[in-house]
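Quick one, tokens below. Sequence please?
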């Protein structure tokens, strides 16, 4: 493997730390900038995600063999050491000597040559002790789980209160486990069987999702956008949980639908496919550049029923009052249900959560006025915290008595749902998602 993969990974980790960038977007941009593809791109990706998924545990081990705490080290020495430890402990195919030597070279390339001896000494100690690294102390359940699985203690404490110790650990393990990429078949253009056959012929492992129809789980994909099936619009990248949101909404042929927070467009696309590209879908976002991405996606998928509108979901638009059969509110949220795909979510400040709550409530309230009498309002988030989920819809239903939660059906093993549910990675094998279906009364008082 080229050292370039490690340099790329270090630059991404630096961007995540220094500018609060999202790892997935930063990684995609840096891979393109550095011209990495194939095995080098795969290694860079594995290193970035591996360090972020295990950062607190890596720091715990480093603290046992370094005279300085990782957080007190000069930039970017902490991340160089984390990359080295991750390779030594977690990547069996990389020789320990290569992990150490490449880490030392990184200190020189990134103008920290005087620290190369320090990096060499610390990592060689890790190598010597890799089979007897110190265990995380179990002085408290939350403290142990927090470090062992590199999740913030405040979140672990919340999960313990909600799920109990055994299931909390199962969720944290799921957050750190490698997962296949899930795609939804574009049945406007192909069938599940035909797409599976085409992807297999392209050297990709494609298996039907265990219980969500028209979804495939892929591995060994490389760059998806280079695939002929992708370019021809045969599928869209979408977790099974997002497909289940569309199934809960149950769009019908010819409906008029509003997607209030549409970017990057997955639920609008899924609804259009479900309706056979009939009816009308108005896809909104605050940022015109995000709407451009939706337009590009619709063009690739061959979807013509979607129109894009720049709109602020917190501001009311009188011309939309009582106009839509179905209104989708996939609200901006903390993203704590998708940590397994975006591991850096766990390190975001919890204060940002509190800032989101009034925005979620405002978008939900405005969206309600756009639902026709007798129509459906579908609220969803990709988080697992009740204050963003049940608490929001409870407060909304208390204030707006003409709406009530409505039973919906999902595929087995879920089956009938009494108006609302949370999907969990450790229970359902999907992203963490909240779904609530609400019906507006036909006769308004």
């Amino acid at each position: 493997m080229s050292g370039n993969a490690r340099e790329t990974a270090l630059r991404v980790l630096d961007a995540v730390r220094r500018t609060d960038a999202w790892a997935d977007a930063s990684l995609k941009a840096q891979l393109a900038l550095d011209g990495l593809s194939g095995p080098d791109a795969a290694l860079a990706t594995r290193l970035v995600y591996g360090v972020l998924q295990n950062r607190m545990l890596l720091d715990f081990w480093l603290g046992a063999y370094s005279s300085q705490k990782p957080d007190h080290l000069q930039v970017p020495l902490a991340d160089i050491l984390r990359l080295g430890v991750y390779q030594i402990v977690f990547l069996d195919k990389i020789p320990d000597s290569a992990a150490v030597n490449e880490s030392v070279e990184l200190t020189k390339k990134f103008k920290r040559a005087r620290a190369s001896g320090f990096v060499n000494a610390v990592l060689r100690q890790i190598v010597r002790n890799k089979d007897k690294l110190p265990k995380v102390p179990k002085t408290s359940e939350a403290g142990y789980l927090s470090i062992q699985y590199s999740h913030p203690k405040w979140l672990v404490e919340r999960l313990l209160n909600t799920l109990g110790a055994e299931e909390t650990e199962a969720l944290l393990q799921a957050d750190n486990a490698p997962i296949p990429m899930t795609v939804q078949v574009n049945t406007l253009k192909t069938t599940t069987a035909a797409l599976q056959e085409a992807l297999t012929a392209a050297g990709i492992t494609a298996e039907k999702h265990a219980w969500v129809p028209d979804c495939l789980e892929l591995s060994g994909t490389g760059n998806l956008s280079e695939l002929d099936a992708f370019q021809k619009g045969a599928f869209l990248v979408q977790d099974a949980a997002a497909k289940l949101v569309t199934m809960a909404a149950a769009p019908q042929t010819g409906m008029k639908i509003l997607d209030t927070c549409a970017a990057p467009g997955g639920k609008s696309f899924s609804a259009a496919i479900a309706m056979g590209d009939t009816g009308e879908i108005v896809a909104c976002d605050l940022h015109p550049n995000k709407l451009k991405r939706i337009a590009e996606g619709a063009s690739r998928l061959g979807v013509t029923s979607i129109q894009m509108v720049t709109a602020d979901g917190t501001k009311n638009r009188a011309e939309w009052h009582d106009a839509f059969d179905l209104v989708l509110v996939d609200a901006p949220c903390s993203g704590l249900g998708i940590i397994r795909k975006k591991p850096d979510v766990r390190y975001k400040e919890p204060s940002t959560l509190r800032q989101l709550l009034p925005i979620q409530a405002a978008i939900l309230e405005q969206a309600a006025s756009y639902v026709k009498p007798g129509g459906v309002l579908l609220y969803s988030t990709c988080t697992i915290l009740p204050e963003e989920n049940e608490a929001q819809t409870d407060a909304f239903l208390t204030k707006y008595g003409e709406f009530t939660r409505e039973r919906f059906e999902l595929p087995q093993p879920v089956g009938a749902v009494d108006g609302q549910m949370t999907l969990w990675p450790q229970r359902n094998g999907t992203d963490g998602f909240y779904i609530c279906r609400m019906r507006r009364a036909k006769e308004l008082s």
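The radius of gyration is 24 Å. Residues 38-65 form the longest helix (28 residues).
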